[in-house]
Amino acid sequence: QVQLVESGGGLVQAEGSLRLSCAASGGTLRNYAMGWFRQAPGKEREFAAAVSWTGAATFYADSVKGRFTISRDNAKNTVYLQMNSLKPEDTAVYYCAAKGGFRMGTTWYRIATEYDNWGQGTQVTVST
Fold this sequence. Notes:
- 0% of the residues lie in helices and 49% in strands.
- By secondary structure, the chain is mainly β.
- The strands form 2 sheets. Strands 2, 4, 5, 6, 9, 10 and 11 form a 7-stranded mixed β-sheet that branches. Strands 1-3-8-7 form a 4-stranded antiparallel β-sheet, with no helix packed on it.
- The chain is globular and about 40 Å long.
- The termini are far apart.
């Protein structure tokens, strides 16, 4: 069990970049798959990116593929989301989430209910 705190959100112009961080406390992120989800005003929560235990495997929603990069540093107990070429439609509250235990396959990374621990979110606003 870990507690997650996101940071790095803010206001940025279109085509700009932000780097979000998700820091864990109360436990280690080793053996946790990690995901980033986002929720825009009036819309459903959606999957953005995920990374496996070791960082060897990453997964992205089509809407962010090629622009966002998820990574992790288990020694620092931190997961990152590098966001480049931001668009106004990327505006949302971004949440990090952790999933403990092992899962075979890859499709589950995209499912919010698979994750055990969630942060409080950080606001990202992309202006036109």
